[in-house]
């Protein structure tokens, strides 16, 4: 039955290609009004799952529905779900405007909608340019405009930030949150948690075709604890004092310090002072959410250790200066402020300038994906 909710439901989904099991008994739901991240390393089964959801691949077992129906039962699917699985399905000799007009005619949408979307995604200045000359970021924008032609209730995007510059990533983040705030449904896949961490509310983490975590991103954050590294004059005495105070998970580090999970500098300082133990230094470490993601998804395609490169302890990120550290809380989000730098995390965390919002026309010289205007 078509319930009109915009809810995505994946139940016990399995897909086998011969002897290869690409997806194995996968189950999760995506609710309207939120942005859900579908995360996993390359080869985890993300794209195969999305293709089954969109009716492009037949499941071996299980179901994937939108509004309580499979994709082929939706009537006019483009009016219900917009999707981007491949940004290369453009005729190279066709302009961006003509490309959208062809799709608009196919789903019964007036040409006026084409110009609206060209402005929305920032392609209005390039509307009459041939798609064959577009950069990767510009093709991503055109693909998103195509998905939005039918004003869908559900948006499914596979690696949408691929090829975007920092300004484009920030615009996309704001757009997806605005889209979900209208009570619509967003499912976005990525192989990098840092790429979508500031956008998503819920997260489904998969590896080797199986679910590794499913739930609110905030719960994943709360599962990580900070720890304090202490250099005391008397390590044995400090450990005893800490355990008497209720800190029982104290452990030594390779460099001779004492690691105290779940404690603050102030707490340890008070305990050391009360026990009469001198402390020569303390520093707090914040658990890295990206490292937890690697821990959940490894070792699907892990390589051999690199000679001369020390292995980082799973779950711990870079050290946090004491003056800037904030105690974890519902709104503090220290993981986002002190995130371990990754291939694409830096621009997202640092770029703070205002961006074009949905429905606004692009500003002069505003680019996305390297376009020069």
SSE map:
Layout: E1 8-17, E2 20-30, E3 35-39, H1 46-53, E4 61-66, E5 81-84, H2 96-107, H3 111-120, H4 136-147, E6 154-158, H5 166-181, E7 185-190, H6 193-196, E8 202-207, E9 210-216, H7 217-222, E10 227-232, H8 235-244, E11 251-252, E12 258-261, H9 265-275, E13 279-287, H10 289-297, E14 316-320, H11 334-337, H12 345-350
Parallel strand pairs: 3-7, 3-8, 5-6, 6-7
Antiparallel strand pairs: 1-2, 1-4, 8-9, 10-12, 10-13, 11-12, 13-14
Helix pairs in contact: 2-3, 8-9
Summary of the model, kept short:
The chain has 373 residues and is α/β, with parallel strands linked by helices. It has helices at 46-53, 96-107, 111-120, 136-147, 166-181, 193-196, 217-222, 235-244, 265-275, 289-297, 334-337, 345-350; strands at residues 8-17, 20-30, 35-39, 61-66, 81-84, 154-158, 185-190, 202-207, 210-216, 227-232, 251-252, 258-261, 279-287, 316-320.
